[in-house]
Write a structure and sequence with these properties.
The structure holds two protein chains of two kinds. By secondary structure, chain A is mostly beta strands. Chain A has no helices and twelve strands. Chain B has no helices and eleven strands. The relative contact order of chain B is 0.33. Chain B is mainly β. Chain B is globular and about 40 Å long. Classes of the chains: A mainly beta, B mainly beta. Chains A and B meet through strand 5 and strand 6 of A and strand 5, strand 9 and strand 10 of B.
């Protein structure tokens, strides 16, 4: 079945450091890919998405490019802030399936001042 | 826009009690809502897909009689944890999908359930 593999955390960075969180997926067909962010004690917020190969999703300085050849959707940010501290989830939804979201295990990011 | 409200945000109750959690889409209509369970420091596990006007579709291993789902209108789905026990303690999150769109799902802020 469909699955998402995310790099294990936790990740701890200093403010203004470069961030990469790796995400790879396994799916039949042509899934849509997402990054969600969860702040402590809250639900999930959509951070960015890409619906087809070579699409780049971007939001709040975060970017991720849908790479079909490597089945990847790595999250990057050039300069992280303390307020970026949260748990980040990579997810996919398969159009040919039931539209359910399949999540990775999440990566906790802590940014220190 | 696209706000999903979940209530209550936190509930503590005694073992054997039934607990109802509400999920409302405030500014859009949702034919489909999803219920997830999240264990500490783990990912979200889909429990069931709630369809307006019809029975919910449960994921394998989820007890239908334990977790009752009702989706009576285009803006409201409820999850009732019946005869809750300490092992049911968890963070429950709902999401909703706009009838006019495919994705993304919009998530509520979650309900922390603690059974004593």
């Amino acid at each position: 079945g469909d699955s998402v593999t995310q790099m294990e955390g936790p990740v701890t960075l200093s403010e203004e450091a470069f961030l990469t969180i790796n995400c790879t997926y396994t799916a039949t067909g042509y899934p849509s890919l997402f990054w969600y962010v969860q702040y402590p004690g809250e639900g999930l917020q959509l951070l960015l998405k890409a619906t087809k190969a070579d699409d780049k999703g971007s939001n709040k300085g975060f970017e991720a490019t849908y790479r079909k050849e490597t089945t990847s959707f790595h999250l990057e940010k050039g300069s992280v802030q303390v307020s970026d501290s949260a748990v980040y989830f990579c997810a996919l939804s398969n159009v040919s399936g039931s539209e359910k979201l399949v999540f990775g295990k999440g990566t906790k990011l802590t940014v220190n001042p | 826009g696209a706000v999903v409200s979940q209530h209550p945000s936190w509930v503590i109750c005694k073992s054997g009690t039934s607990v109802k959690i509400e999920c409302r889409s405030l500014d859009f209509q949702a034919t489909t809502m999803f219920w997830y369970r999240q264990f500490p420091k783990q990912s979200l596990m889909l429990m069931a897909t709630s369809n307006e006007g019809s029975k919910a579709t449960y994921e394998q291993g989820v007890e239908k009689d334990k977790f009752l789902i009702n989706h009576a209108s285009l803006t409201l789905s409820t999850l009732t944890v019946t005869s809750a026990h300490p092992e049911d303690s968890s963070f429950y999150i709902c999401s909703a999908r706009d009838v006019q769109g495919y994705q993304p799902q919009h998530f509520g802020d979650g309900t922390r359930l603690s059974i004593l």
